[in-house]
Amino acid sequence: MFAVIRTGGKQYNVAVEDVIKIERIDGEPGSVVEFAEVLVVGGDTPVVGAPTVAGATVAGELIEQSRGPKVIAFKKRRRKNSRRRRGHRQEYTRVRITEILTDGRRPSDTPPPRPKREKPVAVVEDGAEQPAA
Q1: Rg of the chain on CA atoms, in Å
Q2: pTM of the model
Q3: In a structure prediction context, what are the per-residue pLDDT tens digits for the chain, which is 133 residues long?
Q4: Hey, how many other C-beta atoms are within 10 angstroms of the C-beta on 61?
């Protein structure tokens, strides 16, 4: 299942467990954020909103608040002894999508626990298992 959400003036195609970098939104790392502007909910029977899908929300866990690289805007007017230099760093938020909800359901207040990843196991010729290096 996937969804198309709109936040920060941009649209994002998301699925569960996706990590996206969006324009800065308020919140602390570890908190749950909710995106109410869902444009499309896809899956076996896709639903397209006009302009949004009624009763659909997307929930995500806020991972970090950060800033992008510095961008320098430099203007020079030749032969006029005129130069302007301005720097800018865009703030953004990294979010992990946890749930895609329909039918007016609300997201949980705490993010669901992450599934534990098992360490890969290497099988040696004699049939004994050893942790992979």
Answers
A1: 22
A2: 0.77
A3: 899 999 999 999 999 999 999 999 999 999 999 999 999 999 888 999 899 999 999 999 999 999 999 999 999 999 999 999 999 999 999 999 999 998 888 888 887 777 777 777 666 676 666 666 5
A4: 21
